[in-house]
Design brief:
- With 318 residues, this protein is mainly alpha-helical.
- The chain has two domains: 160 residues, no CATH class; 105 residues, Up-down Bundle (Receptor-associated Protein).
- The chain contains twelve helices and no strands.
- Helix 11 packs antiparallel against helix 12.
- The radius of gyration is 29 Å and the shape is flat.
- The termini are far apart.
Length: 318
């Protein structure tokens, strides 16, 4: 049985109305915090002699900073009260593993999943609600709209996982060279913290940023072994965990740091060579499908087409 159009319209109105009510409630709750933030920005810009009004400060910010991020933060703060703590902690860990590319916490990220589901599902719902009538393919809205909504809900999670994989791959690629530089600096007489500072100054990658953050934490009073362990947890690589464990054990047992770093550097280069060999062994398998679907058909066409033309001409004369 087909659902009447007025029922769909009622559902849309209820969803939009609930969304607006949630945003209004969030705006009222955080208005005082926003005023304090704007006041601090006004003082900062006034001291620099650049901008002197709240309106100009707001307009000077990108649209993402003016609208999207505050909205996600407000809705995230409200939804955090009803979100399981385990889910928030797991999301926070994934955001840290990705290097916090969104510059937001777990509640705001979870709110972005909710918004993505509403936007994608709502757009497709409107498309099906007002069809153009020119589509050659008949699509079932009762299947497409829920699937699109689910895709919008899980897309931020997939994007975050791709960021985690890319960051870990970049760190893993940079580790052998970084360990070589650490070894050289320590053998030259620098302390381990100073050697890490040299690495963070030498390159601009995710590993150097992780080193710089760890150094900053030590400068702020955190124990070095705790800062290193936290850095290992934020990276989430077995190679980094093994390296940090060796450094901490060397510090506790009084073993030569330069010797430990030299051994770790050699092991890291050996693992990189093994990974390269493993990837090289996978190359023939990866090339099989492109050859089967692209190269072989072209070869068959080149070889068989003249024979087919000749046979067609010969049998055509009979």
């Amino acid at each position: 049985m087909d659902i009447p159009a007025w029922v769909w319209m009622l559902v849309v109105v209820l969803v939009i109305g609930g969304f607006i009510a949630l945003v209004v409630a969030a705006s009222r709750e955080t208005s005082s915090e926003e005023d304090d933030l704007l006041a601090s920005r006004l003082i900062e810009f006034s001291e620099r002699g650049e901008i002197t009004s709240l309106e100009e400060i707001e307009l000077s910010q990108p649209f993402r900073e003016r609208v999207i991020v505050p909205l996600l933060l407000r809705v995230g703060d409200i939804s955090a009260r009803f979100t399981p703590q385990k889910l928030i902690e797991d999301t926070e860990l994934k955001i840290e593993l990705a290097g916090n590319p969104i510059r937001m916490g777990a509640p705001a990220f979870l709110a972005s999943r909710f918004f993505a589901a509403i936007i994608i599902g709502g757009l497709l719902f409107v498309v099906f609600l007002f069809p153009s009538g020119n589509s050659p393919v008949e699509l079932n809205p009762y299947i497409i709209v829920p699937l699109a909504t689910l895709f919008g809900f899980f897309f931020p999670q997939l994007w975050l996982q791709s960021k985690i994989d890319a960051r870990q791959k970049e760190i893993l690629k940079a580790m052998p060279d970084a360990l070589d530089l650490l070894t050289i600096c320590v053998e030259a007489g620098l302390g381990f913290d100073a050697a890490m500072a040299k690495v963070s100054e030498k390159w601009e990658n995710e590993l150097s940023l992780a080193f710089a953050r760890s150094i900053k934490e030590v400068q702020l009073g955190k124990l070095r072994r705790e800062a290193l362990k936290d850095m290992s947890d934020r990276i989430g690589l077995a190679e980094m965990t093994s390296f940090i464990a060796a450094v901490i054990q060397s510090e506790q047992l009084g073993v030569s740091m330069a010797r430990v770093l030299r051994i770790q550097s050699e092991q890291m280069r050996m693992k990189r060579r093994q990974r390269a060999e493993a990837e090289a062994q996978k190359a023939p398998i990866k090339m099989l499908l492109p050859m089967a679907f692209l190269t072989f058909p072209a070869i068959f066409i080149v070889l068989l087409t003249p024979a087919m033309i000749s046979l067609t001409n010969n049998f055509g004369d009979l």
